Amino acid sequence: MARITWACWDGGGNLTPSIGIAQALERRGHDVRFHGRPEMVGRVEAAGLTATALDNARTDLDRYAFHPMATVFGYTSSPAAGEELVAVVHDEDPDVVVIDAMFSAALDVAPRFDRPTAVMLHTFFDRLLDGWRTNFAMQSESRQRAGFAGLPDLDTLWGDRNLFHVNTLGAFDGEPATSWKHVVHGVPVLTSERRAVPTHLPWDDVDPTPIVLLSLSTVPEQRSPEMLQRALDALGQLPVHVVATTGGIVDPGELVAPTNAFLVTFADHDALMDRAALVLGHGGHGTTMRALRHGLPMVGLPAKGADQALITSLIEEWNVGRALPGDAGADQIGSAVEAVLADTRCRTAAELRSLAFGELDGADIAATSLESLL
User: Can you give the pTM of this predicted structure?
Assistant: First the structure.
């Protein structure tokens, strides 16, 4: 049995697949322990895993008050959080340390762990490498503005680790963007957390009306009741049924639901996609890959995540739906949904994409990848 310390970032598309991989590792007899922001602890423990909040997760937030993403960069690039992780690794003495690809402060101190380290990325690598370099340069600049030393460049933070595991299909990620030998592509890890509960829909199973699943971001920093309302207003004008999941960051009571819509906070997306005709999403990697695995066409309305505009554009590039700007109005959204529902080529293209997933299990593939460091 190996001991594995996981330095995590609890973004919506990061923590859920990390939990799935950790569960796969524990089934193999390993001991995985998560460390990160306090808000991740309950979610990890609900999955039957061990989690501890970093005491210094919020120590540096005030220094980042100038930044619109202060609650994100004030943690992910925090020197205090990085130093605490050095102490955690010393005390736990793990065989391997896994670091979320976004956690720059942990990546910065990784050489001091003096043991194998793996970076875990839950979205595209090759397609987004230039964007990731820009993102990490911004983290470094923000850190300096907060009064701390800057960060090494991305080629050091990611390139000098022992393993870089990408939880997406290599065939979807485009041509290799580096000559790095430690990059391993797996498969999207489409784990569901316990809060993804079964949902009883108010329509008969034999009702032929198309169902549209509306699912936007679950990241608090991307909270947008206004975007959800625009989407609901658009779908309310169409001959469809709507299931909208608000992700725990928007209260359904904040929204005015049209008569054809059913709103819930969380739901089992796999079960809903089994019945849906289309997904209206925010360009998140997990939601997009889950829809493709189900062979569903999409309309993309990107939120502000680093990868979401690119993923939304791929929906159109791959002919599996339509891409819209994040500020698209209700009329644009409604027209796009109507067009995709009427275009059988989008459904056919999505079904062809679904074949790439086969019976592959992304969590097991990532667990095997991590075991290669033992």
Answer: 0.93
- Residue that is written with structure tokens 């505009």 in the block: 309
Give the mean pLDDT of 317-326: 95
- Domain definitions of the chain by residue range: 3-188+359-371, 211-354
Gyration radius of the chain over CA positions: 20
Nearest to 352 by CA among 310, 270, 289, 295: 295
Burial 59-96 (b: 16+ CB within 10 A, else e): bbbebbeebeebebbbbbbbbbbbebbeebbeebebbb
Question: Each residue of 163-198: pLDDT tens digit?
Answer: 999 999 999 999 999 999 999 999 999 987 666 667
Measured in degrees and rounded to the nearest 5, phi and psi for residue 164 equal -125, 105
Question: Nearest Cα to 98, choosing from 187, 165, 29, 188?
Answer: 165
Q: Which CATH architecture has domain 3-188+359-371?
A: 3-Layer(aba) Sandwich (3.40)
Helices and strands: H and E segment counts in the chain: 14, 13
